User: Fold this.
Amino acid sequence: MVDVLSVGFVPLLIILLILYQGIRIPREYERLVVFRLGRYSGIKGPGITIIIPVIDRAITMDLRVVTIDVQKQAVITKDNVTVDVDAVLYYRVVDPDRAVIQVENFKVATSLLAQTTLRDVLGEIELDDLLSKREELNVKLQEILDKQTDPWGIKVTAVTLRDVSLPESMLRAIAKQAEAEREKRSRIILAEGEFQASARMVEAAKLYQDAPVAIKLRELQTLAEIAREKNLIVVTSGGEVGEATGAVAGLTKAFGER
Assistant:
């Protein structure tokens, strides 16, 4: 009786073992790339999936977005400035079968490709463009990487330049350049102010030329403003001041009589 039970238990155990090895439950964001006797059989999942143990070999692929921190790269720009640049790469697998068949290790291949592309693209631009046109460079890098990884079934969704490190000597040079630019703008503003002031003075001189009494009135007004300070002694020609005062008084009286 025991032998019969033992004989019946062994096949049942084998069947349970086959079922255990043959049942796979990939998640919603996973797919199984199945090879049957070495040949590509298809993609299965998500949910309960049955494969044939020993005969089938299944590779699980994650379809979620993967983030790669591209290592800091020493880049020589077009104007021969050495900078350290690091970036962040976002990609996902869109064709699991090609990601397995076309490339040995798509993660390593994508990471190394991002490093070389980063050096090649940034080496063709000048430092000023690297610092001021990051958005355009991000788009350009994303397009190049997406095109190169498309045969692998990889979709590059975004590339972001995270940091650009400049040498200390270059930082000092940029600071001097910025200071010179500010000095240039300040001098231009002062010159513009002088130009406008001189134009106004020319207009005032023409007015004084047409009305000589006005300049005498301006002279008296200036003397009155100086007198308010009470800390200066102003020496003027008494005759000229008297004549001007008399003329002003005469004009005032004449206007009053009218």
In short: The beta strands are 23-24, 30-36, 39-44, 49-50, 56-62, 66-76, 82-93, 154-165. The first helix runs from residue 2 to 22.
